[in-house]
Amino acid sequence: MTTTPARATYLISGATLPNGARADLLVQDARITAVGTNLDEGLGITTIDADGLVALPGLVDLHTHLREPGFEQSETVLTGSRAAAAGGFTSVFAMANTMPVSDTAGVVEQVQALGDAAGYATVRPIGAVTVGLAGERLSEIGAMAHSRAQVRVFSDDGKCVHDSLLMRRSLEYVRTFDGVVAQHAQDPRLTENAQMNEGALSSELGLKGWPAVAEESIIARDVLLAEHVGARLHVCHVSTAGSVEVIRWAKSRGITVTAEATPHHLLLTEDLIRSYDARYKVNPPLRRDEDVQALREGLADGTIDIIATDHAPHPKESKEAEWDAASFGMVGLESALSVAQTALIDTGLLSWADLARVLSQTPAEIGRLADHSHDFEVGAPANVTLVDPANSSTFDLGRLAGKSTNSPYLGRTLSGRVEYTFHHGYPTVRAAQVAPSDEIAAQAEAWKASN
Amino acid sequence: MARVVLSQADMTRALTRISHEILESNRGADDLVILGVPTRGVFLAQRIGAIIQRIEPDAPKALVGALDATMYRDDLSRNLTRTPRPTQIPAGGVDGKTVVLVDDVLYSGRTIRAALDALSDIGRPRIVRLAVLVDRGHRELPIRADFVGKNLPTSTDERINVRLAELDEVEEVSIETRSGEARSSADTRSADAAPSARPADASNTSDTAGGTR
Amino acid sequence: MRHLLSTRHLSRDAAIQILDIAEDMAEVSNREVKKLPTLRGKTVVNLFFEDSTRTRISFEAAAKRLSADVINFSAKGSSVSKGESLKDTAQTLAAMGADGVVIRHQSSGAPQLLAETGWIDAPIVNAGDGTHEHPTQALLDAFTMRRRLFGTTGGTSGTTGGTSGTNGGSRGRDLDGISVVIVGDILHSRVARSNLWLLETLGAHVTFVAPATLVPFGADTWPAAISYDLDQTLAEVKPDVVMMLRIQSERMNAAFFPNAREYAREWGLDDVRFQALAPDTIVMHPGPMNRGLEISAAAADSAQSTVLEQVTNGVSIRMAVLYLLLSGDREALL
């Protein structure tokens, strides 16, 4: 493939917009410069035949683990954002459980800079709520908010801010910067050494149970705290029907709470664990079919606001182990859109417009992502994902673009495939192939120079 | 097509003759133990025991038993796992006794080799003899029968089916030419070579010709 | 049967086949020559990540009685305790030519992982994994019950006839209609789980009796009655078998029940409860026992107790299992 000249102009021809309308999109200088039908191809314009493809605003993942600094054997900012591009994402929020923990301005600025240099996606660091995720003292939230990274999302994800007083304080404190606390809702005492959803199956398999109430009780406490102090709360990876109920109740009271569900909690159930295959080991654990249905309905009725991947790469040896000893987590960036289509569009629960909302518009709003648009209007930043919804295929290793391969979907048939991803007006994915990293780095450099 | 070589009457006559021969060679029924090799050998042993008791009313009551040789076979790892059959030794054991092993068909001799090993782990008989309903030849070991119902020259691609009333409804010995793929359930009840893996059937072969493999 | 990982998916016929073959093996154990040449030249590895001398020597005796060579691989003091993965250990054993692996592991599912990953292509016997299953224990328990209830001899398919025990013998029998009460730490007991599935398959009725904190979550969907009251259960069920489970001292520290005295008073088979049992009620314990805690000395040492028979029968059952898994042509099973 020849190197695309910087600042190239693209004509996306005949794409189906989320609202069902058919349109041509002209992409020039990192912006959408024309929208219409039968736009002229003109000289020097690269035309992309988007007939049959759905154009979505660039996807935004509010919950990604990029592992850098500290765990580069699993993922780096470069490889993780490459995986993001492969999955149609143009922005990712990087969780704070790195080593060192992203609890200072220095670390979050480093992560952001690595993302800018890689150029596959906009990388927005998430700051830790407490120092070292230890749950004891507030980290330098203000410094991170005012740093070049302008952190707006704070989370101890991987650990729960379980101290009620500390949670209250953090909610109050981030309010000052229009920030949000993204809570990993997991009562630590109720889940000591827990391995899978607590139920008849965990008892049969002899794996220590992870009760739904350990999640639901923390969410219930937190929504009440958010109401009490008038702050914004975001609930990470909601996994149980009970949690959906609690959040639905909170929203009905006018509490400013938002919630996310992961793709895997929308598709997979605990029955997979009968194999003791640690690819299915994840935090929070896979739940029952009733929970999956409740999450889907929650997304459909707006109780659950967004889908976030909780992309959690792990090296092979962490997963090729007995269940107890294996790590929690699944990679999810590359498969998220296909899983969402399979679980939500194919089942008739959501439209493509809904999917654009839960995978792009709302996560951008919750994360206060600057310069994001979802309406394909002239002048909007050219962050666009083109997906072929008719492609139904076996998800295989070739679809993975990050460093780790701990995907639960390998060998599974999923609907839809990302054909193109445009970030800042240049394609990070062309004809379902991720563009090489040196080319993308050069594009990012050029984009930066022009801004 | 199977050809009947021994009818029910033929079989009864043969077993009666064998019983007389056993008593003659043992000079009566004292210290006699008849051990059938499962599956069909056990029924034949019971019949011989009954005939002996009819001829010699003073013969010991506990005369007949069963000797399973599965655990001593030399072809275990070449076939699907076999289910062993019970071994039952008459009260009084085998030490110092005259043990007559009874099997339906003598072929390669490997089953009898295994049975002799099994017997030696149970005790030390004074004499061990072998009685078979049919000797079809093709020995692979230096083993011969002392009492034979019928010598039946066969080729290795023929099979001998021994059917007994206790298991098979009919009672006869037949011979058939094996066609390569005709391995019906009736085949597995026959006494002959097991050239390939077969189900671990309870009424498995009593003799196996390893050399035909 | 390629592996023995659990009793959950063991069919009735397969279970009875194992029990019947164990009858043959038990006869061998009564002979002067307690050895069979069956597994000559085969190597059985006892891979024990968790200490259990009893189970290990039982498997060792079983393998040796079948003339197999035995390698004992204990995780303690080996590279396993230095972080070697289960995968590397399995591949090492495969490279050494293990023909069968008996694995005891603290993690539930570890035996299934060995059986299904392809790290090693050998029959796997689960000798206890985490709080999941301990299938040979359940089989030896069922074997013990069957022998006590139906006698030790007996004929299938009329092989010899006339030598059956008084009750017609055990061979070919299941445990249809037998009532079994299992008392104690069901939550952490792989023995209880394996027994439940096997006893259900064999037609027995199982009642679990335990403090509510030691009943597994969701066990109400299992094919067992659940009770928290031992006296009431013994009076109402009038069980054929009472099986007492070992109480681990660490459970007391984790607030599952207040203290040993209260446990013994509420859920122990003490002398009074033992005396109240019907005289032919079988008293079982997988061992090792905490005398005076879950079972009184009088009950443990009584004629109704099968504690030592269970040990003896364990060897027969494990011989039967090793025979079934290791003797046949594995290629033919594929």
Automatic annotation (TrEMBL), chain A:
Name under which the protein is recorded: Dihydroorotase
Q: Name the enzyme group at the top EC level.
A: hydrolase
Q: CDD domains from the xrefs?
A: DHOase_IIa
Instruction: Tell me which domain of life the UniProt entry assigns to the organism this sequence originates from.
Output: Bacteria
Q: Which PANTHER family match?
A: ALLANTOINASE
Residues the entry annotates as binding Zn(2+) 2: 157, 184, 237
Listed under catalytic activity are:
(S)-dihydroorotate + H2O = N-carbamoyl-L-aspartate + H(+)
Binding sites annotated in the UniProt record for substrate: 65-67, 97, 283, 314, 328-329
What EC number(s) does the entry state?
A: 3.5.2.3
Q: Where is the Dihydroorotase catalytic domain?
A: 54-241
Q: In what pathway does it function?
A: Pyrimidine metabolism; UMP biosynthesis via de novo pathway; (S)-dihydroorotate from bicarbonate: step 3/3
Sorted alphabetically, the Gene Ontology cellular component annotations on this record are:
cytoplasm
The UniProt annotation places Zn(2+) 1 binding at: 63, 65, 157, 310
Name the needed cofactors.
Zn(2+)
Q: Which residues form the active site?
A: 310
Q: Which InterPro entries match?
A: DHOase, DHOase/Allantoinase_Hydrolase, DHOase_cat, Dihydroorotase_CS, Metal-dep_hydrolase_composite, Metal_Hydrolase
State what this protein does: Catalyzes the reversible cyclization of carbamoyl aspartate to dihydroorotate.
TrEMBL record, chain B:
GO molecular function annotations of the record = uracil phosphoribosyltransferase activity
As annotated in the record, motif PRPP-binding runs over 99-111
Pfam families the UniProt entry points to: Pribosyltran
Q: Where is the Phosphoribosyltransferase domain?
A: 10-152
The region called Disordered is annotated at: 172-213
Q: Which of the seven top EC classes does this enzyme belong to?
A: transferase
Give the compositionally biased regions (Low complexity).
191-203
Q: Gene3D superfamilies, from UniProt? A: 3.40.50.2020
Comp. bias intervals (Polar residues): 204-213
Q: Which UniProt keywords apply?
A: Glycosyltransferase, Transcription, Transcription regulation, Transferase
Coiled coil ranges? none
Q: What is its EC number?
A: 2.4.2.9
Q: Give the catalysed reaction(s), semicolon-separated.
A: UMP + diphosphate = 5-phospho-alpha-D-ribose 1-diphosphate + uracil
Query: Which intervals carry biased composition (Basic and acidic residues)?
Result: 178-190
Q: Sorted alphabetically, which SUPFAM superfamilies does this protein's record hold?
A: PRTase-like
**Which example biological process does GO assign this protein?**
regulation of DNA-templated transcription
Q: What does this protein do?
A: Also displays a weak uracil phosphoribosyltransferase activity which is not physiologically significant. Regulates the transcription of the pyrimidine nucleotide (pyr) operon in response to exogenous pyrimidines.
- Name of this chain's protein: Bifunctional protein PyrR
Q: Which species does this protein come from?
A: Subtercola lobariae
From TrEMBL, chain C:
MF-aspect GO terms = amino acid binding; aspartate carbamoyltransferase activity
Question: Where do the annotations place L-aspartate binding?
Answer: 82, 190, 246
Under catalytic activity, the entry for this protein gives: carbamoyl phosphate + L-aspartate = N-carbamoyl-L-aspartate + phosphate + H(+)
**UniProt KW keywords:** Pyrimidine biosynthesis, Transferase
GO biological process, any: 'de novo' pyrimidine nucleobase biosynthetic process
Q: Which cellular components does GO assign to this protein?
A: cytosol
Q: Where does this protein have compositionally biased stretches of type Gly residues?
A: 152-170
Q: Which residues form the Aspartate/ornithine carbamoyltransferase carbamoyl-P binding domain?
A: 2-146
InterPro entries xref list: Asp/Orn_carbamoyltranf_P-bd (IPR006132), Asp/Orn_carbamoylTrfase (IPR006130), Asp/Orn_carbamoylTrfase_sf (IPR036901), Asp_carbamoyltransf (IPR002082), Asp_carbamoyltransf_Asp/Orn-bd (IPR006131)
Record: residues binding carbamoyl phosphate = 54-55, 104, 134, 137, 287-288
Which Pfam family is one of this chain's hits? OTCace_N
Chain segments carrying region Disordered: 151-171
Establish whether keyword Transferase is in the entry.
yes
EC number(s) recorded for this UniProt protein: 2.1.3.2
Limits of the Aspartate/ornithine carbamoyltransferase Asp/Orn-binding domain: 176-325
Q: Which domain of life is it from?
A: Bacteria
State what this protein does: Catalyzes the condensation of carbamoyl phosphate and aspartate to form carbamoyl aspartate and inorganic phosphate, the committed step in the de novo pyrimidine nucleotide biosynthesis pathway.
- Name the family the entry cites: Belongs to the aspartate/ornithine carbamoyltransferase superfamily. ATCase family.
Q: How does it assemble?
A: Heterododecamer (2C3:3R2) of six catalytic PyrB chains organized as two trimers (C3), and six regulatory PyrI chains organized as three dimers (R2).
Q: What protein does this entry describe? A: Aspartate carbamoyltransferase
Which source organism? Subtercola lobariae
Give the gene name: pyrB
